[in-house]
Amino acid sequence: MGLSQFTNEDGRVNERQRSFNAAEFDIMTSVRADSVLVLSSKNTLLSFDDPIGPSQFYMLRYHRDRMLEAAKELDWTETYKDLAGSRGLSYLKGVLQDYLATLSDGANHPRPLKLRVVINYRGHISVTSTPLPIPLGQSSLAFALFPPLLAPLPPRVDHPLPQESWRVFISPALVSPSLFTRHKTTNRSVYDEARSFIPNLPSSDSPDRLSEVLMITVNNEVMEGTITTPYFWRRGRWVTPPASAGGNMGTTRRYALEAGLCVEESVFKDSLSQGELIWLSNGARGWGWGEIRPPE
Length: 296
What we know:
By secondary structure, the protein is an alpha/beta fold.
């Protein structure tokens, strides 16, 4: 079903379709669950309003906040009420912990997981998971998930890069920003379409070949990646597309801006070049780098 059937011309929810919409899509986010995160005091601070102990969930409060913003714009009052405040954060944490306890290895899973967290208009949360390929040791935790800076690219001896690297392509299609690009929902058709234009592209969950597609708006502006936030080197600093470009306000993007790793700035398609090296981040894998390539 086309996005125009869900939203008005300005991309906001059509009130006459609100009840129909609620049955058609849910709010979602993807959270890293990793036992090594309990060793990170920074993750504890970023996971709770009033930290009371360690968290194995990567920046959980930021994930809750992004779902809360979506519920607010959608006017899903039950969902908003369930997620709001310290009680809502504890509720979300409890659901995730209960899910981990159902796995064969229990809550002490030996490898990191990507938790796909979906909440509907009545506040019901469901969780599924897929393994993440690279367990992190304590020594690499800060570098991969909480970088103190975004190192220059190409790499130098004094600034080694994370192990993960991405193949990055540019979508030939132009996207009109909407509710479904501003917020992460289960309506992923615009993202799936962008990936479908690139031949032989592996699944977005593939652990072996990390591949990303940069989405371009009707104004020829980079909006975001299909599964990551991109960062570009412009005029001596790292920049990421602004909120006005229409993309998701992702959790790692928020961290990067608040930590001063980058600034918001429009990035236009004609400024991109083959072989350009960029940083990428998302809420399950953390940070990695990639190279813009022609379709293979």
